[in-house]
Each structure stands twice: as C-alpha cells, then as structure tokens.
Amino acid sequence: MKQFTKQIKKGLLELVILKLLNDEDLYGYSLIQKVKEKSNNSLDIKDGTLYPILYRLEDSNMIESYWEQIDTTRSKPRKYYKITDNGKTGLNDMLDEYLEISKGINLILNSEVNNNDL
Amino acid sequence: MKQFTKQIKKGLLELVILKLLNDEDLYGYSLIQKVKEKSNNSLDIKDGTLYPILYRLEDSNMIESYWEQIDTTRSKPRKYYKITDNGKTGLNDMLDEYLEISKGINLILNSEVNNNDL
DNA sequence: ATAACTTACTTTGTATTACAAGGTATATTA
DNA sequence: TAATATACCTTGTAATACAAAGTAAGTTAT
Lengths: 118, 118
Hints:
homodimer; 118 residues; mainly alpha; Arc Repressor Mutant, subunit A; 5 helices; 58% helix; DNA-binding
C-alpha cells in the first residue's frame, strides 16, 4: 500500500471505529467489512491493524468486549465490542479535534494560487 | 499537544507544505507562519517538525533549496525552498489520495445512527 | 548598552501507529 | 476434498510529529 495512504490514516482509524461502535455493537471481522462498506470502499483496514486498535481502545476504557454466540449454526462465539460512556465522550472530543484540523487543512488545500509578488 | 491531534497530522503536513510551495518559494520559518495563517490558526507546525520534512522532500527530489539574501538590511541569507516538476506530480498524486480517503472517512463520520435491529 | 525577545536553522531521541507477515482454527463452497 | 472465507491473534518494522536541546543573528524595550 502507498506510504502516504498509510500516513493519512494515522489516528483516524481509531475515530472511525469508535464512530461505528457508537451506532451498534460489532465484532472485529465485521468491523473491517463495515468500514469498507460504509466508506464506499475507500477505507480498507487490515486485521493486523484493527485488533491492536481494539485492544488499545479497551485498555483506555473507551470500549468493552464480550463473547457472544448469536448465530446458533456456528459452534464458535464471536467477540463483540461495545462503546462505553467514556468512549462516547472521547468520540465527541475526537470529532471536534478532527473537524478543526480538517478545516484548517482544507483551507490550505482548496486555496487557489495567490502570489502577491506577481 | 493532544496525542490525537499529532496523529491526525501524520503525513498531511507534507501535503500541506508541498501545496504552499506550489504557490510560491518560501523559507522554513516563513512556512511555519504561512501554515498557521492560511489554516486560520488550526495548524501549528513546530520547527522541529518542519525542517525534517523539508529535508525529506528535498531528498526525494520534490523540492530544492537555495540560499538567498532578499532583504538587504539583513546580513544573513535565508534558505528558500522551491517545488520541482517532480514535486508537482507528487502533489497531485497526494491530493488525489487525500481526497479519496477523506471522502471515505467523512462518509462514516457524517452518517447518522442507522441501527436496523431497533 | 544590555537584557529579553524574535527570527532562523539544526539535531537527537521518543512515542505512536498502520501494516506486512506470520500463525491458529473453524466454516463454507466448489 | 481442496480451496476459500471467516475469525482471531502476535511480532517486528517503517514512518513521522514533537519535545527538547542547541547555535547565532536581528530587534525592541528599559
């Protein structure tokens, strides 16, 4: 994958995952698909990326997990993740920060050439 | 500084700097001010961040530098940076990537709760 | 004058994080 | 029954924003 793409995503995946878990409980594998689907295939999280993020979020009490067997035809349960109240607060803070930075970046990227010397 | 803010910026500062140098030649210190000013104070690059980025961009032939003494009252020249043709191509590629990822992220962040189970 | 501040450039070390690449094991489909 | 998809996990690596430190010249206030 392109190095730049990797870098753009730094930190943002955590935000994206929190946002999705704010809507509904999901298990790891389904989160990967959800991210891909909801982003219109623009975002593709690797499993080796996702799981460490989930453990991080759990360690910081933003989310919590539980094993559950919903599908009775399956012998193995899945590990579901659920956002906590703490996580909801964190999500809002992160959204504010993201919007602020993102606005600043777009101000620069969308500006037309404006060379006063010419 | 907030850790999340740091992470959001990963990789994006390179893009922002290239974009500004695409408009006009600038020296390091003025770039810091330019970024702050043009982003409406949302972005504040530290000098310890900027200079390594400039050296990286120069190593990859995206920009080139020259010492110039424009202000005759100053004894010391400033090190100006100029975007190369290679850098212009790189900038366009990065802009495309950024827009793609950014679109995907916003699709997720702007989506309202849509829990089909309820 | 001189102390304090700003301008301007540089370097070293640290923390963080996305991913590649490897692994395990069950479930489904050809 | 072989291949593929599902589902989880771990280790090591590369990249990068920043803190913190330094050097040195220019400017401003007392």
